[in-house]
Amino acid sequence: MAEREIEILQGHELRLLRCTLCQPPSDPSSHLQPSGFAASVPPLHALISDFLTSVESGNYLGALSSDAARLVLASPDSDLSSHSPDRVYSDLLERVESFINEPSIDDAEKACRRPLPMKAWWEGSEMVEWESWARNQLMAAGSDLLGKFCYLQYIVFAKMLLLKTRDLLFEASFMSTFKIRSISWWLFRALLIHQQILDERSSSLFELLQVFKGETLGHFGSFEKVTSYWGAQLQDGEASTIVSMVHLEAGVLEYIYGRLDPCRLDLESAEVAAGLQLSVTGILGLRTVHQVEPKAQMILVANTSSKSVSGDINTSIAPDTQLTGPNVSEASDIYMTPKLVENGNGFGKNECGGVVSTLTTVQQAVVLAQCLLIEKSSPHGEMQGWDMAPYIEAIDSQKSSYFILKCFCNILRIRWESTRSRTKQRALEMMDNLVESIHKPSPGVPLRLPFCFSVYIPTIPALRNKLEKKAAAVELIKEQLSRRPNDPKL
């Protein structure tokens, strides 16, 4: 493969990865190539670029129906409805193998008129049969699914396509796989999603995940490896973000399987790559609306690699910034973030203050990931929540954050506040709002994707189950309060 073509292919890899690194660009022209670029690029790469543009804009059905997808996946058989899913997938993988061994776009126009097997995924009476087939394929890992899910075929398709492509590249040449290094990362992600929708941990998936975790860290686990692979195609700060994200995702895997020491090592590596040094300190502040005398509050201190305008130490508590609506905040007389004071005098109007540090999105993800370590390394209960509190409040006080990071932060806060009698009601309202915000279509998928693999977000069935349990607990407490209003235990 010519060096120029390899560079273009690596650029395609980077564009796809960026969909999970940052929000899509508001200006589509940001991906336009210099004048004369299209003339020097093989037609196949032009089709790939169009495919990626659809993915970046969130037009996923458009991507699956694009000329690039049809070129590889389109079937010469016009009647797909009579075939079983096994037959269709087998034929699909044969076409993938044929294309990889002899890539050509000579028959592009003919392919564009062929039917796509994926069309049965989103329309037609075959949907029920195909979804049932996909469900059985996923449960073959040794566990039932957590609940009812839609479009399971996409997970099956992703796994089969990635595994087949990787195997074919290994057969052709060991070095070929290293020309498309991100394939190991995407395989790791597909398998991790598979595990997250299972009711139990799968040993067979764990073995595969460890293999692809090792490969991914081998390719992108250090700043030098990332920069040597993508070079000048990287944007400012992108290399460190990629390295940190790789280690965060590895830490999520170890968290899911309850492996504390590997999880700690991965998250420490992510912290270093993000240019952070985290510690917790005490600062006088007010925790409740009616509190008069300030008391020591645990505050997260985030020393960043970049110099702070205010001095050596940066606390990530910012003035009066909340991620929840006012109606939720008013559900308790406990502040969402403490109101800090200095030497008995309030900062500003007695609002949450201090030496403010604005954290980047990857740094926010690293901060929240520390809560996973705390959860695994300390006994469950209210004290565990207080250990997590500085990290949760640090992100709640940031002026901006990605959708998925806000959701993860709210989940952590709900777990903490549901253990405290004075904030149980607020936790229930937050849980209700969280499930609703995740379930509704806005914001769209492109705005939900960034860092979705770097934090641990339960599935919607799992969230609904927790909401029902918490609602039942709150109703039980209310009933007991009506009977015994003066009982101190309530």
UniProtKB/TrEMBL annotation:
UniProt KW keywords: Repeat, TPR repeat
Source superkingdom: Eukaryota
Protein name: Uncharacterized protein
Highest classification ranks of the organism: Eukaryota, Viridiplantae, Streptophyta, Embryophyta, Tracheophyta
